[in-house]
Each structure stands twice: as structure tokens, then as C-alpha cells.
Amino acid sequence: xxxxxxxxxxxxxxxxxxxxxxxxxxxxxxxxxxxxxxxxxxxxxxxxxxxxxxxxxxxxxxxxxxxxxxxxxxxxxxxxxxxxxxxxxxxxxxxxxxxxxxxxxxxxxxxxxxxxxxxxxxxxxxxxxxxxxxxxxxxxxxxx
Length: 144
Prior knowledge:
By secondary structure, the protein is an alpha+beta fold. The protein has a single domain, classed as 3-Layer(bab) Sandwich (minor pseudopilin epsh fold). 31% of the residues lie in helices and 34% in strands. The protein has 2 helices and 8 strands; from the N terminus they run ααββββββββ. It has helices spanning 13-33, 40-62; strands at 66-71, 74-81, 84-92, 98-101, 107-110, 119-125, 128-134, 140-143. The strands form 2 sheets. It has a 4-stranded antiparallel β-sheet with strand order 3-2-1-5, covered by helices on one side. A 4-stranded antiparallel β-sheet has the order 4-6-7-8, covered by helices on one side. A hairpin with a 2-residue loop joins strand 1 (66-71) and strand 2. The protein is elongated and about 90 Å long.
């Protein structure tokens, strides 16, 4: 016959509730520390830059100029087709995002060699901002 020793009774219900409560509070704090679902302005700037790089690569692969046109609602990619521009993709900015286009206008064209018409664009959402620079050498950078 086995006898229980003092201290071998296990955890009480109160101890389990306290531990579960602590885990819940820590989980809630971790979730609140994660950026919003949109990922912030930096993520949106990186998304724009990635799409611009893909358009640049497409221009070089297809030997056909590709452009990106930025406006307050979003941005549009188009390809040169026999002297006319044909829209290939349209993207809207995330809610609350405002683009500030530099003095050169909101359009950049990628030619078949990878060179581009320069474009400077600052995205703003609340207090956040990120600057995207497309250089004439074809390099696309994001600045904070």
C-alpha cells in the first residue's frame, strides 16, 4: 500500500488559475507589441519598392519600357505597347496612407537597360513616414 507524503498533493486549482492568468496577460502584452495588421508604413514602402523592382526586371527581360505612376489613391504600372502605354497592374494605398511626390512628378519609367527616370516619394501615415527613392541608375532605396 502506498501512502501520500506531505507536499505530494499536486497543484491546487487556485495555483493553476494564477498561472493561466499570468500567461494570458503576457500573451496580451505580446500581441499589443506586434505592429498593426498593415505592418506600418515601412512595410508598405517595402511592398511598393518590391513591385517597382519587379517592373524594372520585367522591362529588362521583355526589352519593353515599363512605368509606375503614383497618385493619391495608389499607383499604376503600365507597359509600352507600340508607342502607347497599357496598364498592367493597379494598387491602392493602405487606409490612411498619403503619398508626397517630389517636385519631378509622380512617374518613373524603367527602360530595357534598367535605367530609370528618377522618382522621390514619401509615404505618410499619421506620424510615420518612409521615403522611397528610385535613382536614375535604377537603384531603388527606402529611407526612414
